[in-house]
Design goal:
Length: 283
Amino acid sequence: MYSKDKILEIIKNISEEAATIQPYVIICQPRRNSDDLPAQNIKGEIGLHIDILGYSHSYVEIIGEKVDVARNYLIEQALNSGAEYLLFIGDDTVMPYDGFSKLLKTVKENPKSCAVGVYYIKNSSPMIMVRDNNRIYPADVSQGKTFEVWQAGMDAMLIPMELLREMKDKEPDVPFTCIYWAQDGVQKPDGINVTFVGEDNFFYYRARKYGWKVLCNTDVQCLHMDVATGKYTASDGVNLDEYYTNIPLTERLTLKDKKFIDKRWVDTLPEGSFNKEGKVGIG
């Protein structure tokens, strides 16, 4: 007969050994609220909806914070984790099952780069913009391409920790992300002519400043889901069999859904990050 006590002793030793292992990738997720079920299961060890099998990994979330505050918190947690990579996944973003491996391949083949998958502004164009001379427009995101982007979101993004450490070491007094939003009727500071800068725009600018590229791999086609209804926006021709979700996929979002979708997005913004006292707020 086998010894139960010896088996349990070995399991205990394995558990203690596992506690010394750091994550290869840490998945970070800003969540709007605790009541909404995230689009995918990306937390834990079993039944994950993206393929990270074989990689040591961990998960961290923050609930209810404005998006720039959330991302700064999550990045700090990632830096403290000892991970090699940070993978941002939005709570309403659905990555294909093999999305992580394709993004990882992209950054490994292109030193000093981050990688993003394709996802769309709900009811609109791909949130993947390129710059041509002094013009910016949505990229052609048909599959089979990898190219540098000027601007995109951060909700399907793989970031080497090396970049985040460089940002923190060189400018410790600057947040990783920041939303600037000048309220109506507020005089902007000298030299600033824009009314709004998103937290993703802020991050991309800083990455370029340090000589890093953000590359889009168009073989990572994501769905941008409304978690309340299971409706989504995505490229034409996506194969829904490549996606696993907590919420059953229903149909594509239409213009009838736009008013509700737009209001919910605005509700995630700070209430004027440049206020009438002339102070810039983070979140």
